[in-house]
Amino acid sequence: MTSGIREAERLSASPASALAQSEERQSQMTRKAIATDSAPPALGPYSQAIVAGGLVFFCSDTAGIDPATGVPGDGIETQAELALRNLDSILTAAGTSLQALVKTTIFYTNAEDFATINAVYARFMPDPPPARSAPANVVLPRGLLISIDAIAVLPSA
Fold it and tell me: For the domain that residue 38 is a member of, what is the CATH number?
């Protein structure tokens, strides 16, 4: 019964109080940008990755770009491999690895490339592989054929 009363009090708290609690939690959370020359720089106003709350978050644009030349690879197989190598490089810079992936999203331009992407992806992923979604027929910039978002867990300190 006591826990029910506390829950009712919490739910009836003023919106200003709830906002203040939310702002306090956010101010306690630290965010750290991850950047490495071993992967292409972000193509826009975002980080290669952000570490927050024991997780590594990647925004779209872990892409099939050769970090040495800044040029997309030739064909879906090469771009898929480059994208996964770039993802691995950024994870390494963050202090973790592909083994720690828990979720990926693969954006790719041609649904007919699904089998090729899966074959390359399988060579890089741990067992069991992370959860994944893979929307197809996505328009990507700069001649890109594939881009990967990911979430990974940092090892315990």
Answer: 3.30.1330.40
| C-beta separation of 154 from 53 below 8 A | no
Q: How far apart are CA 119 and CA 113, in angstroms?
A: 10
Contact 101, 125 (CB under 8 A): yes
Nearest Cα to Cα of residue 152 among 63, 49, 47: 49
In a domain, 71, yes or no: yes
Instruction: Tell me which amino acid residue 54 is.
Output: G
Residues 70-106 have pLDDT tens digits of 999 999 999 999 999 999 999 999 999 999 999 999 9
Query: Does 10 map to a domain?
Result: no
What is the tally of structural domains in the chain? 1
Structural domain span for residue 120 = 30-153
* pTM of the entire predicted model: 0.79
Q: Which long-range contacts does 13-20 make (Cβ < 8 Å, 24+ apart)?
A: none
